[in-house]
Design goal:
Blueprint: E1 2-5, H1 10-20, E2 25-27, H2 45-60, E3 64-73, E4 80-81, H3 94-104, E5 112-123, E6 126-138, E7 154-156, H4 168-174, H5 176-190
Parallel strand pairs: 1-2, 1-3
Antiparallel strand pairs: 3-4, 3-5, 5-6, 6-7
Helix pairs in contact: 1-4, 1-5, 4-5
The structure holds inosinic acid.
Inosinic acid (IMP) binds near residues 71, 85, 97, 149 and 177.
Length: about 190
């Protein structure tokens, strides 16, 4: 089954490919001729995922899905949330985002946080949404060099190491995106 995944992020692509498994051929944006950044102007993850999926569907008419992820930190009232990519600067600068997060939480004892991924799927013109969540906490310093984004700071519940210290398979098995994609697979298999 061919389906377009609305991302240009190579890390995301390989994570989603691994979880989707056999039977699905993921087509990238570049392969369908979309090279520009897709606008993400929604006020919520749900709105952004939907906006990105519609952007692809309107231009290609192909079945497609888009995801949007946010890191929601309790002490920061859910920030950076929908602004996770542009937390420190407009430039998707992972290192600067991590520095800012550590700074905002300096001296704070409540370091509870969760990653939430929303996926919008459009099949035959009909949209459906699924969600995946992983709860955890923000470490006091960065550790590990795997993954991307906030991975060096996020320690999932039940673990003592960050996502960046785990193998790709370990992260996928428990991550927000892994869980959202597992729900996506159910939708794709059920219909
Ligand atoms: P996006 O809008 O789904 O690309 O995600 C927004 C931002 O959240 C990204 O730029 C990353 O900083 C962060 N993010 C998304 N997924 C992950 C992840 O799996 N690990 C760490 N950070 C992530």
């Amino acid at each position: 089954m061919k389906i377009v995944f609305a991302t240009n992020n190579a890390h995301k692509l390989s994570e989603v490919r691994a979880v989707l498994g056999e039977g699905f051929e993921l087509v990238t944006l570049r392969e369908v001729g979309i090279t520009e950044d897709i606008p993400e102007t929604g006020a919520t993850l749900d709105e952004n995922a939907s906006q990105k999926a519609h952007y692809v569907y309107e231009r290609t008419g192909l079945d497609c899905f888009a995801d949007d992820t946010g890191l929601e930190v309790e002490e920061l009232n859910g920030a950076p949330g929908v602004r996770s990519a542009r937390y420190a600067t407009e430039g998707h600068d992972f290192a600067a985002n991590n520095r800012k997060l550590l700074h905002e939480l300096e001296g704070k004892t409540n370091r509870r946080a969760r990653f939430r991924t929303v996926i919008s799927l459009i099949r035959g013109g009909v949209e459906q949404q699924v969600e995946g969540i992983v709860e955890g906490r923000i470490a006091t310093e960065e550790a590990g060099c795997g993954g991307f984004g906030y991975d060096p700071l996020f320690v999932p519940d039940g673990h003592t190491v960050t996502f960046a210290e785990m193998s790709a398979d370990e992260k996928n098995a428990i991550s927000h995106r892994g869980r959202a994609v597992a729900e996506l697979v159910k939708l794709l298999r059920d219909s």
